[in-house]
Amino acid sequence: QIESFEESLEELLTRVDEFVGMLDMIRSDSSQVVNESLPQIYTKATEMRHIYRKIDKLEAFVKMVGNCVAEMEERVTKAETDFGTFPSTFKKILHTISLPAFLNKSASSRQQQTLYEPPTLFKTEDYFPCVKEVPY
Questions:
Q1: Contact at 8 Å (CB) between 68 and 122?
Q2: Does residue 106 sit within a domain?
Q3: H or E stretch including 23?
Q4: Within-domain flag for 98
Q5: How high is the pLDDT of residue 95?
Q6: Does residue 111 lie within any of the structural domains?
Q7: Measuring CA to CA, which of 4, 39, 48, 102 is 20 to 30 A from 80?
Q8: Distance between CA 128 and CA 36 in Å, rounded?
């Protein structure tokens, strides 16, 4: 009975040693996480906030450019309907031909009605000041 008790006690001591070893490993892993990994994670999170701000600005820029392109497309469509899509070489030829005075009056009044107003365009340098054009 004493021998079986000693064997049980030895086995129990072995299990306690294994348990203590596991606790030490968990403590060292936890201290490594707290002392090393958490500061690294915090630093990366701070860097990511900066990147997120840049992404938000870039999304706003892309949206603004999209609006400018849509407005330009509307203007081109309107100009095509107002002036037609007649090839420019024919237009030049027709403009060089002298027209009777009564036709010139109607053409000049039409030109006064549809004066060209250049659109306001954005400059990329205003949004990306560090970008400099590289000569080719």
A1: yes
A2: no
A3: helix 2-32
A4: no
A5: 59
A6: no
A7: 102
A8: 37
Q: Is 94 exposed, middle or buried (0-12, 13-18, 19+ CB in 10 A)?
A: exposed
CA distances in angstroms from 71 to 67, 79, 80, 114, listed in the order given = 6, 12, 14, 17
Total Cβ atoms within 10 A of residue 68: 14
CA 136 to chain centre: 27
Domains: count for the chain: 1
Whole-angstrom distance, CA of residue 135 vs CA of residue 101: 51
Q: Quick check: is 80 in a domain?
A: yes
- pLDDT value at position 112? 47
Range of the domain at 13: 1-84+119-126
Side chain identity at residue 85, one-letter code: T
For 45-55, b/e burial (b = at least 16 CB within 10 A) is eeeeeeeeeee
